[in-house]
Amino acid sequence: MGRDILWVGLLMGLVSLGMGFWAWNTGRPSWQTMVFTTLTLSQMGNALAVRSGRDSLFKIGLLSNRALLGTVLLTFVLQMSVVYVPFLQNLFKTVALPPVDLVISLALSTVVFWGVELQKWLLRRNR
User: Which of 31, 46, 13 is nearest to 100 (CA)?
Assistant: First the structure.
């Protein structure tokens, strides 16, 4: 488990910081919000992926743990609120993400999910 925590944490950090460095380097004023959004949503993807140490989420089923799915959806709504609701933007020091930046953050936040799913697939294949 320690190995998994280490590699997933490193992957999550590298994806978030790498994307943040790229966004900062390209002059995007939303780079900090992009990092925050990518990191938050990466955690949600990880939570979904690690429900089983061996079986894929697609085999287990997204609806097999409705409480977790509800929590992930609520977190997504709260994250979007922090990014797009002016009062919360002031409170959390975020800026509204342009659609392209949101899509980049959403896409990169799935890397951890796919990484964990790939690891489980490799484990199943090798057994």
Answer: 31
